[in-house]
Design goal:
Elements (H helix, E strand, L loop, with lengths): L1 H30 L6 H25 L11 H6 L5 H38 L6 H25 L24 H20 L1 H6 L5 H11 L2 H17 L4 H37 L8 E5 L10 E2 L2 E2 L19 E6 L9 E5 L31 E2 L2 E2 L13
Antiparallel strand pairs: 1-4, 2-3, 4-5, 6-7
């Protein structure tokens, strides 16, 4: 059984690290090294924490033989010699459990932070989203601090967490502490639900196609899997009895693996789309482009572009009547067509999958594009309309 878990744990670790590496490949292909965001670097920290957690879970069985200071009778505690090997294994196993809880909690909250930062980019320009992102940041900070402090301060003095005799009580059983389990499962689930509440309402009130809405909803609801795994882990820890220490290590690895995959799923989806587009030859590899700040063009109802009225640009995820004029938006004009009326593309580079002029995809992912044909009364001759497809507005999302 121990050999099977070791193989499982390190296999999941290898897959998890590959997932993180593929995320980086996707981001480098999408935005380049100079435009990587804080969450991309933070994901490296998550990979290191996941590696440390797997190592600690391995030590639970391989080095400490699944022992901790729980599930001992009063007679065993009273008669166990401090010089015995079992005593040392119990003390070492209990300390290992403390470290395991700390690393496990830090990993989950690091992944939550990465997801929140991603949402902050995804919702740039959508009204009322900035305050929700800030609330999420405060919620993550407070919940993480509360979880760590509950582990550090619930059993005092601290050395009682590995005390054997006299019996320190359930609060000082790091492997199966009821308080640890209750705090982690409550705050972990509540923060996951809040993170899911950030993009989902926005997606379903947006102008995206219904199919796209379902795809995004499933992708951003991965937190449900993490929450379910966390609940299952806590139930098994509380009901495992003497094997609670081993169960804690094993299920923390499984839950963390799911969290790593879910946290990187949007970038993996983007990478898959880009590969498919390369395979179908749909990407235009032309690099001959010039960028102009969106602010240099007025997009109000009465403004004109090339002498013709331009409709107000709206974020593809914005609600009806919302506006989305942000500094991250750019107008990209194909320089080959500068001599004549160029196709003008309005895009948002902060969203994965922004499409730039000439059809070249700067980022990749789910793309929503709206082509607007703009005419003026001057283009009508003897009742016949002459179409002028000079201006093209394109909003793109991942």
């Amino acid at each position: 059984m121990a050999e099977n878990f070791i193989a499982e744990a390190f296999s999941l670790l290898a897959i998890g690290l590959i997932v993180i590496a593929l995320r980086w490949v996707s981001r480098l292909m999408t935005v380049g090294f100079r435009n990587l965001a804080f969450d991309d670097y933070l994901m490296i920290v998550a990979g290191a924490l996941y590696s440390a957690e797997t190592t600690l879970a391995y030590y639970v069985g391989a080095k400490w033989h699944g022992l901790a200071n729980n599930s001992m009778t009063p007679e065993e505690r009273a008669t166990l010699s401090p010089d015995s090997m079992k005593y040392k294994l119990i003390v070492g196993g209990s300390k290992n459990q403390i470290c395991g809880w700390m690393v496990y909690t830090s990993l989950l909250w690091t992944l939550k932070t990465c997801m929140l930062i991603f949402f902050s980019r995804l919702t740039v320009g959508v009204s009322n989203m900035k305050i929700r992102i800030r609330i999420g940041a405060v919620l993550l900070a407070v919940s993480y601090l509360a979880t760590i402090l509950s582990m550090l301060l619930s059993c005092q003095p601290f050395h009682r967490l590995w005390q054997i005799y006299p019996d320190p009580g359930n609060l000082c059983y790091p492997a199966i502490s009821t308080l640890y389990v209750a705090v982690v499962i409550t705050l972990n689930a509540s923060t996951d639900f809040y993170l899911m509440s950030v993009p989902l309402p926005m997606i379903w009130q947006s102008r995206l196609a219904t199919k796209k809405k379902w795809v995004l909803s499933v992708m951003f609801s991965g937190g449900l899997l993490v929450t379910a795994a966390g609940i299952l882990r806590c139930v098994l820890i509380l009901t495992a009895g003497a094997s609670g220490a081993a169960q804690a290590g094993q299920w923390s690895i499984r839950e963390s693996f799911i969290a790593v995959v879910v946290g990187n799923l949007p970038m993996l989806y983007t990478l898959v789309q880009r590969i498919q587009q390369y395979g179908s030859g749909s990407l235009n590899r032309s690099n001959d482009k010039k960028s102009y700040p969106l602010g240099s063009y007025k997009t109000g109802g009465s403004s004109r572009m090339g002498g013709k009225k331009a409709k107000k640009f709206q974020h593809p995820l914005s609600m009806p009547n919302d506006t989305a004029m942000d500094s991250d938006e750019r107008i990209v004009v194909d320089s080959k067509q500068e001599s004549g009326p160029p196709p003008i593309v309005v895009s948002n580079d902060t969203l994965p999958g922004a499409v730039h002029g000439g059809g070249r995809q700067h980022n990749t992912g789910i793309r929503v594009q709206t082509d607007l044909h703009i005419e003026s009364s001057d283009d009508v001759d003897d009742g016949a309309s002459r179409k002028n497809p000079y201006h093209r507005f394109s909003d793109s999302m991942g």
